[in-house]
């Protein structure tokens, strides 16, 4: 007799303990490899947000867009259906029924009127149209958020985590990047729904801490510079204390660096206008999260209420990353979904 299968995910319900994936196991491994993990995670987010901002010049509008698309994929899942990447993007239109602006506002922590304005802007951009309580994405709207580059980046990120986890009795052998990418494309709406379940709250938490996502991106470029120098210091055995998830942020902020990051470099990397970058930098300085040196370069600074919030947010986000990775590896290794 074959083992029972969960019809919603087609995952085998097994009583065996081998290859059992638990978030705590993945999280412990992320902590044990915190420097290499955060380097890949930070660069992944930097690339993702830069592409999104370059396309829309407004991250709130983009978050509203992907939230709406996510609802369509959730509806498919609720009906025990999924689409490959080709199948989804070959569609002439996608309809999301019964849109509730208050619900979107609550889940994204964005005021209802702002949500309404972003939806209207997307309509003016000919990305979607409203029809009663429904929203319909046309071909242009569907193609606008097609994640060709991001599938490559996400596959690379997961590939590195797979290699990091190999050797663990519960994980088994690593997965190749090409296999991961093929799996994502074949089961696109299943995997990308899980990615958005992680990514949208991840962005929302940063928006709540920094006030807006552009400020978070500006700060993140400075944080990545400090992370790089912390990793280099660790390679030279200059870091004497153990770096844990709880101590990681203070270690990053405290690492000694000679040079910082200037406004022009942040603008070039993020695609955010330099004048906006400078305005965000000034606010971060006023919040004592960063400081400016004599060369007009910016570095992280310890202390202050904002840094406390950032540190707390970092821990929440790493739990979220661990949960996504656990879910993905369980899906690709233990489910009935195969290439």
Care to count the β-strands? 7
Rounded to the nearest angstrom, the radius of gyration is 21 Å
Biggest β-sheet: count, sense, barrel? 3 strands, antiparallel
Structural class: mainly alpha
The topology string of helices and strands comes to EEHHHHEHHEEHHHHHHHHEEH
CATH top level label of the largest domain? Mainly Alpha
In percent, how much strand structure appears in the residues? Answer: 5-15%
CATH fold description of the largest domain:
Arc Repressor Mutant, subunit A
Number of helices: 15
Report mean pLDDT, rounded to a whole number: 90
Second CATH tier, the architecture of the largest domain: Orthogonal Bundle
Say which CATH homologous superfamily of the largest domain is assigned. Winged helix-like DNA-binding domain superfamily/Winged helix DNA-binding domain
Helix content: 55-70%
Shape: globular
Q: Determine the oligomeric state from the structure.
A: single chain
pLDDT < 50 stretches: 1-8, 11-18
The rounded distance between the terminal residues' Cα atoms is 24 Å
Biggest β-sheet: strands ordered side by side in the sheet: 3-5-4
Overall domain count = 2
């Amino acid at each position: 007799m074959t083992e029972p299968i969960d019809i919603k995910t087609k995952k085998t319900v097994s009583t065996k303990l081998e290859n059992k994936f638990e978030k705590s196991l993945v999280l412990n491994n992320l902590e044990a490899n915190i420097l290499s993990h955060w380097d890949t995670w930070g660069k992944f987010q930097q690339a993702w947000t830069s592409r999104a901002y370059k396309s829309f010049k407004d991250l709130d509008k983009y978050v509203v867009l992907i939230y709406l698309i996510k609802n369509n994929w959730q509806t498919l899942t609720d009906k025990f259906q999924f689409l490959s990447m080709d199948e989804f993007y070959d569609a002439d239109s996608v309809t999301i029924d019964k849109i509730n602006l208050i619900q979107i506002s609550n889940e994204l922590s964005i005021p209802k009127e702002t949500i309404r304005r972003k939806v209207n802007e997307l309509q003016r951009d000919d990305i979607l149209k409203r029809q009663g309580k429904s929203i319909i994405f046309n071909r242009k709207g569907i193609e606008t958020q097609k994640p060709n580059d991001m599938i490559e980046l996400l596959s690379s990120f997961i590939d590195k985590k797979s290699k990091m986890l190999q050797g663990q009795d519960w994980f088994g052998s690593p997965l190749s990047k090409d296999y991961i990418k093929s799996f994502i494309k074949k089961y696109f709406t299943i995997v990308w729904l899980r990615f958005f379940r992680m990514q949208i709250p991840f962005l929302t938490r940063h928006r709540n801490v920094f006030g807006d996502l552009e400020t978070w991106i500006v700060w993140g470029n400075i944080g990545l510079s400090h992370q790089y120098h912390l990793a280099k210091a660790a390679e030279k055995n200059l870091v004497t204390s153990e770096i844990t998830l709880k101590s990681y942020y203070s270690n990053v902020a405290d690492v000694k660096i000679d040079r910082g990051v200037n406004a022009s470099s942040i603008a070039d990397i993020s695609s955010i206008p330099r004048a906006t970058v400078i305005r965000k930098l000034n606010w971060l300085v006023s919040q004592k999260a960063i400081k400016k040196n004599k060369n007009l370069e910016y570095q992280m600074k310890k202390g202050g209420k904002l840094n406390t919030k950032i540190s707390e947010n970092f821990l929440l986000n790493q739990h979220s990353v661990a949960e996504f990775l656990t879910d993905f590896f369980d899906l690709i290794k233990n489910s009935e979904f195969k290439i």
